[in-house]
Amino acid sequence: MYQKSLPKYVAEEEETETPTSTDIVSAAIPQEEPYSFQRHLQFQPDYQKTKTTRRRSPLSTILDKASVSPDEAKFEPEEEDKPFPISLLPPELLEKIFNNLDVRGLERFGSICWRARLLTSQAEIWKRRVQTIYQWPMVEKQVTANDLAERHGGEWRTTFIEEERVRMDGCYISVCHYIRPGSGDEWVAVTHMITYHRFLRFYPDGSVISFLTTDQ
């Protein structure tokens, strides 16, 4: 009787062990890292400011290329049949009005037409504001307001806008974070990130008020 022989190569199954839970998850309690709190204080500026001299502002460049000269610019009413008394006021009286406006009101008035922009950009009020604000300790003792204006081609409005200063018409808000460990079980480690805010308000007399949202 004929008997069929088996193939010469027979794949042998490798013996493997079935993994258990001990092989996947360690039975030891996780070790918590010691708690540490760090706060980073920055005393240097984020960038090095380049010093330039006699640099004309973008506004001055636009006014120089304007098709309307300062002598020809005038107030024009939106509706001709209605009175427009501001057009009758001379520049010296408008300067008196500018002295009673804040920066926001002055800039809003300067955005209505070419003549308003010309008058507000050349207003003496910018010089007085710069001379009042940029004094020691706002700037170094050897630096004067005229030195700052010299960097911007003698333009007092540009000096007021671009030079660094401490604002005194609002609050500075600083967002603060710190991390502290929480309560957990033997398998879970809980960590809390606490967020609070610090408010700073500066005053012209040199005083400052600090308030934390965590204070009672």
What would you note in describing this structure?
The protein is an alpha+beta fold. It has two domains: 58-162, Monooxygenase, CATH 1.20.1280; 166-216, no CATH class. It is 27% helix and 12% strand. It contains eight helices and three strands. It has a three-stranded antiparallel beta sheet, with no helix packed on it. A hairpin with a 5-residue loop joins β2 (191-202) and β3. α4 (103-110) runs antiparallel to α5. The protein is elongated, with a radius of gyration of 36 Å. The model has no long low-confidence stretch (mean pLDDT 78).
Q: Largest sheet at a glance?
A: 3 strands, antiparallel
Shape: elongated
CATH architect. name of the largest domain: Up-down Bundle
The structure class reads: alpha+beta
Provide the fold topology.
Layout: H1 21-24, H2 58-64, H3 91-98, H4 103-110, H5 114-121, H6 125-133, H7 145-151, H8 156-162, E1 172-181, E2 191-202, E3 208-212
Antiparallel strand pairs: 1-2, 2-3
Helix pairs in contact: 4-5, 6-8
Give a quick rundown of the structure.
With 216 residues, this protein is α+β, with helices and mostly antiparallel strands. It is built from eight helices and three strands; from the N terminus they run ααααααααβββ.
